[in-house]
Design goal:
heterodimer; A: 184 residues; alpha+beta; Alpha-Beta Plaits; 2 domains; elongated; B: 589 residues; alpha/beta; Rossmann fold; 6-stranded parallel sheet; 38% helix; 16% strand; binds flavin-adenine dinucleotide; binds thiamine diphosphate
Chain lengths: 184, 589
């Protein structure tokens, strides 16, 4: 029996992950109290989970409840843990994995500042029109566009604007909701 | 009915209303109003510690031995940071604590004021929940909610950070009822799903090679859970093993007891886990000291898992029947459902399984070679066990961390829950001495022994002074091998016996040290004199530091090296682990 004994070189066993990571959108309903965001985000960092996008705002003023939307990349096993760990936090009411629960609506808003003159300005406006982006500020040398849509659409718009004088971008992060009559 | 008082008075009042009789603490500038309020009452006894880490471990020992919540009071800044180790320890081992930390006045928060630290930030990840109370109106609710959160569901430590101005402020004290507490989101599930319990019992009724794998959750669920476990074990006739944290929930004197499982568990317990067809996990969390290599962990079994924390389920090992709920309630339901389906233990069906287990038992995996010239650590614990049993007192054991802890788990036997206090999850050296002080505070007439290592005990040695001050007759039983034995063993196993800093140099003379503190010191290095020396320790009515000079290089066996399956356990007779690994190690140099 002891012939098998090999130094493992570690106090722990090491396993390699066999499942593939998937991108999921979670929505978390919390009490809006000091430190609640730190608790949620701290859970992700402490346990080594990723956050790709994060959106937070109070959505029920009378009950002081906020809704946090988190996009994360993880294997199904880790996703199940993330959900249970989030539910374990005292100020967390509900956690829904929107991706797992079927098709949901996902929207993001971005503001883009594009600076340029001459031909580029015409092209910029033409593309903005095609993407239904609004001009919310204009000067003789710049535009600020507001665009709403799925993150992929915004990514695409940003890519197209890059060579046309894109100066800066700000994105809200994802807001997501399920389709159909049921609430959270 | 609201009553007007200061924040500091509210603290005392809310503690009293929650049945608190003892509090472990250390004063400082920011905590003075609470100390002043404490001075003017006599319902709560304050135990003055020597270091705030000591206060947290005392509160842990107090909590684990009584089932009540342990309470700690410390000042801001260094008081709070010194408490962090104990808070983390309590979180890992699911121990209910309420820790009140004082804070600088609200108008100074964030200004790097004297003895300011971000206590809620620092303790966020080592508490079950924490609060910074900035308004006196919130204080009564927070104080009561803290006790609820600490003691219900999966227990854990809760910190309440109270700025000094809030301690001085006048406000209305009231006792909120649970329903009006702030966090409607916090509602632990107590009752298991009946369908799942039925399915579990059906699985048990078809089992041929079953095993109960019980853990700290049974202790957390109170003595009723241990009782229900005993009943279910008797009803089924199944073998029972337990983790380090669950020792005592099932009586070690019962023939169905297999001993502890895991890295330093018995051969029979580990092989039963490996070969079983139905595993019934009651309040244990598939810790890595138990599972070893996950892909080789109990490959052929179907698994039932009872746990109050949904995030424990499928965290490490996927199970077939999860049951979320309190162990006591689920066990009682299991007993009821089992009775409704059968009134026979499965004696005949599992007879071949018991035969197999008896073969494994015959290996005698806890055996060791005794000596007439040096005291073997296992022998010392065996003698301590016999002598303390003969005292006819209630016996409580705490430990430090290392080989001595494992030997204590293997060779000291427990028939009752709440008698065994050890740092399992965090493995905090320095836990045992203060924990023993906390236990003795709760049980003044009991025999309380810290089974210690000479390295660990020096981490919180100063708490012997607390024991002397409060006349707490704790016994510190130091297995002195002049080594950090557990580290030395791993260096033999994994690092070619290169003993990098794993020996205890310049040790104090423990007898003189004890005397300097006003305690009694005893020393023994002769096996023939050991019984008499133990008697001397037990007979002394006061704290004793007993320096037991033991074999220096004894290995703690059996052992499943990490990363190995249960059936690759190293047994005492065959294992000269030093020489096996030495050769490989030499090639590596
Ligand atoms: C040097 C060293 C060596 C060690 N070697 C071993 C070893 O060989 N064997 C061993 O067993 N351990 C060993 N340990 C301890 C190990 O690290 C873990 O602490 C221990 O195994 C965990 O025990 P547990 O699974 O019972 O869980 P615990 O940490 O006690 O957790 C309890 C579980 O029960 C649940 N629970 C809590 N309350 C309730 C309730 N009321 N109802 C239902 N469920 C509840 C919790 O959610 C949790 O999942 C060692 C530690 C050290 C320091
Ligand atoms: C605070 C802390 N630091 C370091 C460790 C790592 N460690 C685990 S066991 C051990 C040695 C303990 O030595 P001793 O108390 O003499 O006990 P023995 O193993 O010799 O019985 C060490 C250093 C720990 N568990 N806790």
């Amino acid at each position: 029996m002891n012939a098998h004994l090999q130094p493992t070189g570690s106090a722990y066993f090491l396993t390699t992950e066999t499942q593939a990571a998937e991108r999921h959108t979670l929505t978390v309903l919390v009490d809006n109290e000091p430190g609640v965001l730190a608790r949620v985000v701290g859970l992700f960092s402490a346990r080594g989970y990723n956050i790709d996008s994060l959106t937070v705002s109070e959505t029920e003023h009378d009950k002081h409840r906020s809704r946090i939307t988190i996009v994360t990349m993880a294997t199904p096993k880790v996703l199940a843990q993330i959900k249970l760990q989030l539910e374990r936090l005292v100020p967390v009411h509900k956690v829904h994995d929107l991706t797992a629960e079927g098709e949901s609506l996902e929207r993001e808003l971005a503001l883009l500042k594009v600076a340029g003159k001459g031909e580029n300005r015409v092209e910029t406006l033409r593309l903005a029109d095609a993407f239904r982006a609004q001009v919310v500020d204009a000067s003789t040398e710049s535009f600020v566009f507001e665009i709403t849509g799925k993150p992929a659409k915004i990514d695409q718009f940003i890519t197209l604007m890059a060579p046309l004088g894109l100066v800066e971008v700000v994105r809200t992060g994802l807001a997501a909701i399920t389709r159909g009559p049921e609430g959270m | 009915m609201a009553e007007q008082m200061t924040g500091a008075e509210m603290v005392i009042r809310a503690l009293t209303d929650n049945g608190v009789e003892h509090i472990f603490g250390y004063p400082g500038g920011a905590a003075l109003p609470i100390y002043d309020a404490m001075f003017q009452q006599d319902k709560i006894q304050h135990i003055l510690v020597r270091h705030e880490q000591g206060a947290t471990h005392m509160a842990e020992g107090y909590a684990r031995s009584t089932g009540k919540c342990g309470v700690v009071l410390v000042t801001s800044g260094p008081g709070a940071t010194n408490a962090v180790t104990g808070l983390t320890d309590a979180l890992m081992d699911s121990i209910p604590l309420v820790c009140i930390t004082a804070q600088v006045p609200t108008n100074l928060i964030g200004s790097d004021a004297f003895q300011e630290c971000d206590t809620v930030g620092i303790t966020r990840s080592c508490t079950k929940y924490n609060y910074l109370v900035k308004r006196i109106e919130d204080l009564p609710r927070v104080l009561h909610e803290a006790f609820l959160i600490a003691t219900t569901g999966r227990p854990g430590p809760v910190v309440i950070d109270i700025p000094k101005d809030v301690q001085f402020a006048l406000g209305n004290y009231y006792q909120p009822d649970v329903e009006t507490l702030r966090h409607q989101s916090y509602r632990p599930q107590m009752d298991g799903d009946l369908g799942a319990i039925e399915a579990a019992v059906d699985m048990m009724l078809r089992a041929e090679r079953p095993v109960f794998y019980t853990g700290g959750g049974v202790i957390n669920a109170g003595p009723e859970a241990s009782e229900a476990l005993r009943e279910l074990a008797e009803l089924t006739g199944f073998p029972v093993t337990s983790t380090l944290m669950g020792l005592g929930a099932f009586p070690a004197s019962n023939p169905q007891w297999l001993g502890m499982l895991g890295m330093h568990g018995t051969y029979e317990a580990n092989l039963a886990m490996h070969d079983c067809d139905v595993m019934i996990n009651i309040g244990a969390r598939f810790d890595d000291r138990i599972t070893g290599r996950i892909d080789a962990f109990s490959p052929g079994s179907r698994k039932i898992h009872v746990d109050i924390d949904p995030s424990s389920i499928n965290k490490v090992v996927p199970v077939d029947i999860p049951i979320i709920g309190d162990c006591a309630r689920v066990l009682r339901e299991m007993v009821r459902v089992y009775r409704s389906k059968s009134n026979q233990p499965r004696t005949e069906a599992i007879a071949p399984w018991w035969e197999q287990i008896d073969e494994w038992r015959a290996v005698n995996s806890l055996g060791y070679k005794n000596s007439t010239t040096t005291i073997k650590p296992q022998y010392a614990i065996e003698r301590l066990y016999e002598a303390s049993k003969a005292q006819g007192k209630d016996v409580y054991i705490t430990t430090e961390v290392g080989q001595h802890q494992m030997w204590a788990a293997q060779h000291f036997h427990f028939d009752q829950p709440n008698r065994w206090m050890t740092s399992g999850g965090l493995g905090t050296m320095g836990y045992g001495l203060p924990a023993a002080v906390g236990v003795q505070v709760a049980h003044p007439d009991a025999l309380v022994i810290d089974i210690a290592g000479e390295a660990s005990v020096q981490m919180t040695m100063q708490e012997i002074s607390t024991a002397v001050q409060y006349r707490l007759p704790v016994k510190i039983f130091i297995l002195n091998n002049e080594r950090m034995g557990m580290v030395r063993q791993w260096q033999d196993l994994l690092h070619g016996s290169r003993y990098a800093h794993s020996y205890s140099e310049s040790l104090p003379d423990f007898v003189k040290l004890a005397e300097a503190y006003g305690a009694k010191g005893v020393r023994c290095d002769n096996p023939a004199e050991l019984d008499a020396a133990i008697a001397e320790m037990l007979d002394y009515d006061g704290p004793v530091l007993f320096d037991v000079v033991v074999e220096k290089d004894e290995n703690c066996l059996p052992m499943i090296p990490s990363g190995k399956p249960h059936n690759e356990i190293i047994l005492p007779d065959t294992a000269n682990i030093g020489s096996i690994i030495d050769e490989k190690g030499r090639q590596l140099v």
